[in-house]
Amino acid sequence: MIKKFYAISIFSIFSVFAATLCGCSKKEKETVNLEIWTDETNKNVITERLEEFKKIHEDEAVFNFTIIEESSKSCLNIMEASPAYTPDVFVYTSGQFKQLYTQGYISEITYEKDSVIADHGGPDSAIIKAVTINDKLYAYPELNSNGYFMYYNKKYFKTEDLSSLERMIEVAASHGKKITMDLHNGWYLYSFFKGAGLDVSINEEGNANRCNWNATNTKYKGVDIARTISKIAQMPGFKSYPDSNFIELIKNPNSGIIAGINGAWNANNVRLVWGDDYDASKLPTFKLNGDNIQMHSFAGYKLVSVNSKTKHPQWAQKVAHWITNEESQVAIFKNTGECPSNLKAASHDEIKASPALTALASQSKFAHVQFTASSLWTPTKMLGIMLTEGLSPEIDLQSQLDQTVAAIQMPE
């Protein structure tokens, strides 16, 4: 009887152990619901990449991704306007980084941190510095293309024409054509003011701009720069249009646009319109008080961060890393022509041969990472409208610039 009981006991133990194993194998997988914001132009690419992510991790979790089209330029404004409507993972332009950080919207990046830093040039690279605070990383870099340069149609311009804005405008006028640039936009007006040594940037608190576009004691005064911009705007071969209209303008032969200042996000579209005549160069110089002044530019990056309030921080970081890795950045380049920030992605032969990215690289020595508060935009738009309409003799331009700068520096 003792032996029989012992045998039954051993059998029972093994039965319980086997049942336990079966129970483990049938354990329900975690359900991960994530809302992801991306630019409209890259929604299809990101969707495809996320489907691949699901397959790779299908044994670990069930993923429900909601992919929302939101402009990377408007991310902060949308989140501020609707605090309850916030994504888990979102793309935005680097100019919003400091405010997103100071307002507590973004969380520290730890997943694959070291490899991300290495793949973007190390801790001293500009893009890593731009998303690092107190040695902590707060974003995955996605693109190094939120800057601008000169697109042009090779049919009309010689290489020597490209060095001077006024010369390009004269060439365009000689053909009954025009060059365009959005002068109703502080992002582009910056080219003239910064080129001449005046600046705008955000303060340390991240809630207000510092600006001296109204300077009177500098080599080039603010009013001198403003008058030069207005003079350019009145030239027969120039027309200011919103940068968002650029592709429609070059598609329309009646617009007469044969060159224009715009960004790498439109590279593939420009190539499709102009074909073999498509090319690009760094920004030209402009004349100011008899001197040739190199136009500067804002530089910027597209970044992807994880919301500090996400319910799935680990998976959100894995997703953010996946949609910004080397393969994803190459896929985005093929879709839009935008420049990868990942050095391995940027080294692909197809990418290195891009005219837009060559122009962006040439412009980089005259480009500055944009960190500004949103109070820059409305005052500079009004300034640009005034300058493009022409300056009447009765306008007190210094007073107008003083008012513009006061509004630009208004705390948010």
What is the global morphology? globular
From the alpha carbons, calculate the radius of gyration and give it in angstroms.
27 Å
Number of helices: 18
The chain-level mean pLDDT equals 92
| Structural class assignment | alpha/beta
Give the SSE layout.
Elements: H1 2-25, E1 30-38, H2 43-56, E2 61-69, H3 75-81, E3 89-93, H4 97-102, H5 113-119, H6 126-130, E4 132-133, E5 136-137, E6 140-143, E7 148-153, H7 165-174, E8 178-180, H8 186-195, E9 200-202, E10 209-211, H9 222-233, E11 238-239, H10 246-251, E12 257-263, H11 267-274, E13 278-281, E14 285-288, E15 291-294, E16 297-299, E17 302-306, H12 313-322, H13 326-336, H14 343-346, H15 349-352, H16 355-363, E18 367-369, H17 377-389, H18 397-408
Parallel strand pairs: 1-2, 1-3, 8-11, 8-12, 16-18
Antiparallel strand pairs: 3-17, 4-5, 6-17, 7-12, 7-13, 9-10, 14-15
Short synopsis of the structure:
The protein is an alpha/beta fold and 412 residues long. The protein has helices at residues 2-25, 43-56, 75-81, 97-102, 113-119, 126-130, 165-174, 186-195, 222-233, 246-251, 267-274, 313-322, 326-336, 343-346, 349-352, 355-363, 377-389, 397-408; strands at 30-38, 61-69, 89-93, 132-133, 136-137, 140-143, 148-153, 178-180, 200-202, 209-211, 238-239, 257-263, 278-281, 285-288, 291-294, 297-299, 302-306, 367-369.
